[in-house]
């Protein structure tokens, strides 16, 4: 090949979440290897991965134990499946470990390959259960504005971001939409976090009553919304939402795809924020992103009717070829062992405040409207006017400019509008957090100079 990787990429690859026209000018950032919290491009330049790839590489790059677990399993049994009464030991062990870790009692685990597949499976099993219980009308689901639950045809409609709907003829109008619990943006003047939470719970109740409680099956929620801008729930939010769901027999699905396995400081966001889910979906950190795998944890309330219905029909007519893939499952088991052995929760407890305090150090900056976060996830939102919270004209692309500057300074971040997210590998050290914040400060100074000039 005489042509560069960048040229070959532009000719061959259609990229997700990328402007394909601009990509022809800019080309890709080609990442060729990783080590710890850093990745290196094809020229050898290093970057701190401020988002752990896509919120997933919790153990950082180069974890040899995961490589060994994969290669051992690859040699012994590279493929098998769980269809038709078959089983394999990595899947069994993984399901046992997930049940043992679950933050609320769970009965069974269904293994899938991605976060989208896990949530899609949750949607299908909710529908299956409704039919099993003789409640065929109780199937509507509620998801929130700015939620991210995936991009399959069904889960895209749960996702509450316009870019995932536009020109795809989505969302499905059968998906009901609840408000995003972002106090900074959506609270009324003077409304406390508690009062805001009370109002959102009342709005949820009004929605359920308007639709008819006998038609509403489930409410989907990320404990901390990730792709929607790192939205940490306001005080009292989930307790008040949970009370409404309980009152109308509406299931709660906790999408722990980002929050699961320590990101918020506890093993699950469910624990950090006091949810009582009937279904939990996990992915990403489950294998530290090393191989694709995800899981749906199901309470007895789900399992009993599903088992009865599948027994009646003769089989559970759902499952993916790669669901619980043995190599992925072996890597996930090893990942969970490492989290326990290295006490990842204690580590996040030690270094999380360093990130949160560091980010809050930018709160007085003239362009910073809000700093938010918990554990090892956070965001800094830039605004045109701090006093009025007025946002920049989206056409200016201020968030994207900040991310581009950060990349020049050796830090990979992700912009969600003008909010920039941080979710580094959970193994990040205090020194590495300090270095990440220094690189961010340089990028913010550059953008400030450009915006204010
Ligand atoms: N749910 C949440 C909370 C996510 O953040 C994501 C991906 O970012 C998904 C679901 C979808 O996961 P996947 O991209 O593996 O399909």
Question: Explain this structure to me?
Answer:
The protein has 453 residues and is of the alpha/beta class. It folds into two domains: 5-62 and 344-452, Aspartate Aminotransferase, domain 1, CATH 3.90.1150; 66-341, Type I PLP-dependent aspartate aminotransferase-like (Major domain) (Aspartate Aminotransferase, domain 2, 3-Layer(aba) Sandwich), CATH 3.40.640. It is 41% helix and 15% strand. The strands form three sheets. A seven-stranded mixed beta sheet has the order 4-10-9-8-7-5-6, sandwiched between helices. α7 links the parallel β5 (140-144) and β6 (175-178). The model has no long low-confidence stretch (mean pLDDT 98). The structure holds pyridoxal-5'-phosphate. Pyridoxal-5'-phosphate binds next to α6. Pyridoxal-5'-phosphate is lined by residues 54, 114-116, 119, 148-150, 222, 226-227, 255, 257-258, 283.
């Amino acid at each position: 090949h005489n042509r560069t990787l960048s040229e070959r990429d532009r000719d061959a690859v259609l990229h997700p979440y990328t402007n394909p026209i601009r990509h022809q000018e800019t080309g890709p950032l080609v990442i060729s290897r990783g080590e710890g919290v850093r990745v290196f491009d094809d020229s050898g330049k290093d970057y701190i991965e401020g988002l752990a790839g896509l919120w997933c590489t919790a153990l950082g790059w180069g974890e040899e134990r995961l490589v060994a677990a994969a290669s051992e399993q690859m040699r012994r049994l590279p493929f098998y499946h769980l269809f038709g009464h078959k089983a394999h030991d990595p899947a069994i062990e993984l399901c046992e470990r997930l049940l043992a870790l679950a933050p609320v009692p769970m009965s069974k685990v269904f293994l899938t390959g991605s976060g989208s597949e896990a949530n899609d499976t949750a949607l299908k099993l909710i529908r299956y259960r409704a039919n099993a219980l003789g409640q065929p009308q109780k199937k509507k689901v509620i998801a929130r504005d700015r939620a991210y639950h995936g991009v399959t045809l069904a889960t895209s409609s749960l996702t509450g971001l316009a870019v995932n709907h536009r020109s795809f003829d989505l969302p499905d109008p059968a998906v009901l939409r609840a408000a995003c619990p972002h106090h900074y943006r959506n609270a009324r003047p003077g409304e406390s976090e508690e009062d805001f939470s009370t109002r959102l719970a009342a709005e949820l109740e009004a929605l359920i009553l308007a639709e008819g409680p006998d038609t509403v099956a489930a409410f989907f929620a990320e404990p901390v919304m990730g792709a929607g801008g790192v939205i940490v729930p306001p005080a009292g939010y989930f307790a008040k939402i949970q009370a409404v769901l309980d009152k109308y027999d509406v299931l709660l699905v906790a999408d722990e795809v980002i929050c699961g396995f320590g990101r918020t400081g506890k093993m699950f966001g469910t624990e950090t924020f006091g949810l009582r889910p009937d279904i939990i979906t996990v992915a990403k950190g489950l294998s530290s992103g090393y191989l694709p795998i995800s899981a749906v944890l199901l309470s007895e309330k789900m399992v009993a009717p599903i088992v009865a219905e599948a027994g009646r029909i003769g089989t559970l007519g759902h499952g993916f070829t790669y669901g619980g893939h043995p190599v992925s499952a072996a890597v996930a088991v090893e990942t969970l062992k490492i989290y326990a052995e290295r006490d990842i929760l204690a580590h996040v407890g030690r270094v999380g405040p360093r990130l949160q305090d560091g980010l809050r150090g930018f709160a007085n900056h003239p362009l910073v409207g809000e700093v938010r976060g918990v554990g090892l996830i956070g965001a800094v939102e830039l605004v045109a006017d701090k006093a009025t919270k007025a946002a920049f004209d989206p056409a200016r692309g201020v968030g994207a400019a900040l991310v581009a500057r950060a990349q020049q300074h050796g830090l990979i971040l992700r912009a969600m509008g003008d909010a920039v997210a941080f979710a580094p590998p959970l193994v990040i050290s205090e020194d590495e957090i300090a270095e990440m914040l220094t690189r961010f400060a340089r990028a913010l100074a550059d953008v400030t100079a450009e915006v204010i000039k």
